[in-house]
Amino acid sequence: MNDKPTATHPPGQEHSVPWFWPLAATIELQQAGMKLFRENLKYLSEVEKLAASPPPEWATSHRIALDLDTMRLRDFSRAAARPDDIAVLVDAPYAGHAASIADFARGQSLVETLLGAGLSRVLVTDWKSATPAMRDYDIDKYLAEINVAVDDLGGGVHLVGLCQGGWMAAMFAARFPGKVHSLVLAGAPIDTDAGRGEIKRISRELPLSFYEELVAAGGGRMLGRFMLAGWKNMHPDRQYVGKYLDLYQHIEDGGYVARTERFERWYEYAVDLPGRYYLQSIDELFKRNRFAKGEFVGLGRTLKPKDITVPVYLLAGAHDDITTPEQVFNAETLLGTPRREIEKKLVPGGHIGLFMGTNTLRDAWPAIGKWIRARGRRAN
Questions:
Q1: What pLDDT is stored for residue 118 in this prediction?
Q2: Which of 127, 144, 289, 370 sits between 20 and 30 A of 136, alpha carbons compared?
Q3: Can you give the residue range of the structural domain that contains 221?
Q4: Digit-coded pLDDT (tens) for 63-93
Q5: Binning pLDDT at 50, 70 and 90, where does residue 343 land?
Q6: Counting Cβ atoms within 10 Å, is residue 374 exposed (0-12), middle (13-18) or buried (19+)?
Q7: Angle between helices 31-47 and 208-217 (to 10 degrees)
Q8: How many domains does the chain have?
Q9: Cβ count within 10 A of residue 212
Q10: Is the separation of the CB atoms in 52 and 104 below 8 Å?
Q11: Quick one: DSSP state of residue 130?
Q12: HSE-CB of 237 using CA atoms within 13 angstroms
């Protein structure tokens, strides 16, 4: 657990700054760059007026199974689910966007695809946006509440970790090996030393104090709007020009416009993170890679990937510049799972498409669903 206090500003003095680690690439590690960053904190607090986007919708009918401090556990299970069916728990991303990416739209939903593959009990962790009262939540808090959810589901699950939810799922599997029957890691940065991705470079080059200032600017939280601006500035030509040109060219195509509006509603809805959780993940995972090295302490125990021995499926995007394929596939060399029980698949496309892309949902996830189903039901 990170015992370092989270830096904060007094209430009412939260600053608005459009930076997160991707955008930080535009700031060189020189005194002038850091000075510019600090000056813009003051400037932007006066001039930036960001309207709140409406929350994105979930496409598939469901109920709220649990309402915990960190999440709402959304249950999409079929009415015909058998009592001995092991639940599939999708650990959604927690990186500034809503968890509804796992159930984006009819015909474009990971939840729908898994149900269609014959998995009758499917649930998703809908991570809550951090309030000021949540600013000191740490990774332990999130692992503990996943454990509450798993116990409520019968004490054992098939765990599917997406993006940042992937390292959290892997940590849980290492901490509670008897509670995970199989593990799917999709676009999950397990070995953050691997590959040559932009996020790896930025997280290593910028000092921790830079991220601490971001958290202080958010009153002890990593504000989602900071992160959103950072993701946009990884591809500014696309985010600020290209997508609007595409929309103009398709303005008479009602289906295209509706799809664009739905995606933008999801994309622009920002989710805040607790400052302690965020700084802990930056320092211990992205800077020091402590989980991959078997050095991360979670819920009182040192968590080691080699303690994960269940069947594992690794899914990566060939053009994923958020989590490079190497960061996902290097898990094969770190896990205690026998190689014959590890499946790997590289699919075309980038990061978000791993979870809601039409082609990946059609070509990859049905097979993953069948792979999970083949891991069996609960023993009598």
A1: 94
A2: 289
A3: 1-380
A4: 999 999 999 999 999 988 887 789 999 999 9
A5: very high
A6: exposed
A7: 10
A8: 1
A9: 18
A10: no
A11: P
A12: 0
- 136, two tokens: 């000191």
List the one residue out of 334, 340, 284 whose CA is nearest residue 304.
334
Residue, of 218 and 9, whose pLDDT is higher: 218
34: alpha, beta or left? (left if phi > 0; alpha if psi -120 to 50)? alpha
pLDDT of res. 379: 39
Q: Which amino acid is at 149?
A: A
Global confidence as pTM: 0.80
Residue 8 has pLDDT above 90, yes or no: no
* 234 Cβ contact partners less than 8 Å away, ≥ 6 residues apart: 22, 23, 25, 198, 321
- Backbone angles phi and psi of 121, in degrees to 5: -120, 105
Report the pLDDT value the prediction gives residue 376, as an integer from 0 to 100.
Answer: 77
Phi, psi of 190 (to 5 degrees): -85, -45
**What are the tokens at 96?**
């500034």
Residues in contact with 56: Cβ distance below 8 Å, sequence separation at least 6, in sequence order: 98, 100, 262, 265, 266, 269
Cα–Cα distance list, 358 to 44, 165, 328 (Å): 38, 21, 21
Segment 13-21 shows an average pLDDT of: 38
CATH of the domain at 338: 3.40.50.1820
Tell me how far the alpha carbon of residue 9 is from its chain's centroid: 27
φ/ψ of 136, rounded to 5, equals -100, 10
Choose among 168, 212, 167: nearest CA to 192: 167
